[in-house]
């Protein structure tokens, strides 16, 4: 069974769904809004003559935050057009990207109708052109779009997820080096830290290489990535939460194996 089939965001709109449990991610998006606005403003000042701006949010997941960066980008483009006295802005094409198992249906069924209503009610569609939103399922660690097609790339708190379990987590004798953990922990040996670091560098290099082919010359990119301390990578920026999840999963497995 693939890891993605076991560990993934819970879809739907229930009490324990990602849809209703993503307030911290929303806080981060709002906190970094000035950076997003500046990058979009710079892009607009150089690209407002374009007929269509193509924008992608990578790792959108399925909660209400999926359209939050889209709305912020639209507001910034609208205000920039007004400031530069453009009577009509470009058409906007937004792509929401995540793995194929993501609950895209919730986004398009529960969020998008209200999104378009809000766009019309606030008259933003009078300045910018038509706005189209589409899904782009697939791993952002590889290619997703044609060469020179994207004007803006956004990703918030998604690049921390690796494309695969790092290699080198098993000793030559076949023993797990990170036994009892699902992530970096206080008990993880240096070889495990290096394995995770090497995998991240490989994935991030692949991500940047793919985007360099897909983005137009002069395009912009805003990436928000959770970090950790070099001195104690297991106990910074909320990473200890993964340890709690790991302990819970271990207890669940033990309970299954101990049943008569």
From TrEMBL:
Q: Which is one GO molecular function term here?
A: methyltransferase activity
Q: Which Pfam families match?
A: Methyltransf_7 (PF03492)
Q: InterPro entries annotated for this entry?
A: MeTrfase_7, SAM-dependent_MTases_sf
What PANTHER family does the entry give?
A: S-ADENOSYL-L-METHIONINE:CARBOXYL METHYLTRANSFERASE FAMILY PROTEIN
Protein's name according to its UniProt entry: Jasmonate O-methyltransferase
State the organism named in the record. Answer: Turnera subulata
The organism's taxonomy opens as:
Eukaryota, Viridiplantae, Streptophyta, Embryophyta, Tracheophyta
